[in-house]
Design brief:
By secondary structure, the chain is mostly helical. Helices cover 61% and strands 10% of the residues.
Length: 234
């Protein structure tokens, strides 16, 4: 049995059968792999798409589960569910690391156990399912493997959601939401450093750094929140 067939058979266990197996293969291809092997593309574009699909599905799920909660509370609950730690845990459950295509260097440095890399791969898989089978299939998959035990995730997750706190303050003052922009990502794949800027009131307010995009966004939000809070006290 070749590697592709092995991957396809593995995901059949999770009721995932792709009409286009290439999408699944791409979802499991880290960008470092392209430096050593021939591959059409990495999973970065699918990760981008999957992130948006995952946010929509989770937002819709929480919206209906908690009909009387405010926007700020729902945003905070969503942050607890889609944080890197949670997504990487689901990726481990699905054994995504076993099939993740990495460069030899990344594999040797423990890339298959890197929480940020695993979380990104899970998002890429969601993006692949969406393209291959539509939103309904993606939603069924996310609910089954991520949201089914949502109460446990919400009650046990420990994440300081600076983004939600910042959004509440900004919206209260101007009725707009902060925008987060990835400024740069540097360093080796097993030790990446992300820099993200947050903007609102028509200008950039703060910059944060972290080991993942989510962490960098939270860092930027924390700095902006401190700045906004100090201004309100003057």
């Amino acid at each position: 049995m070749n590697k592709v067939s092995s991957i396809i058979d593995h995901f059949k266990k999770f009721n995932l059968e792709f009409a286009d197996p290439q999408l699944l293969e791409t979802a499991l291809t880290h960008r470092s792999y392209l430096n050593e092997q021939k591959a059409a593309e990495s999973n970065e574009r699918l990760e981008y798409l999957g992130d948006a699909v995952l946010e929509l599905i989770t937002s819709d799920f929480l919206f209906h589960q908690f009909p009387h909660r405010t926007e700020g509370v729902l945003t905070s609950l969503r942050a607890k569910i889609v944080q890197t730690k949670t997504l990487s845990s689901v990726a481990q459950q699905l054994k995504l690391g076993k099939f993740l295509r990495l460069s030899k260097g990344e594999a040797a440095s423990g890339g298959i156990q890197n929480p940020s890399m695993l979380a990104d791969t899970f998002e890429a898989l969601v993006g692949a399912i969406y393209l291959d089978q539509g939103l309904g299939a993606a939603e069924k998959f996310v609910v089954s493997y991520l949201l089914e035990d949502y109460l446990t995730l919400i009650n046990k997750s420990e994440v300081q959601d600076w983004k939600s706190s910042l959004q509440e303050l900004v919206q209260a003052q101007k009725g707009t939401s902060p925008a987060y922009i990835l400024v740069k990502a540097e360093g080796p794949d097993h030790n990446r450093q992300f820099t993200v800027a947050v903007s609102y009131f028509d200008k950039q307010q703060a910059v944060g750094m972290g080991k993942s995009k989510q962490a960098a966004e939270q860092a930027a939000a924390r700095k902006a929140l401190e700045k906004l809070t100090k201004k309100s006290k003057i």
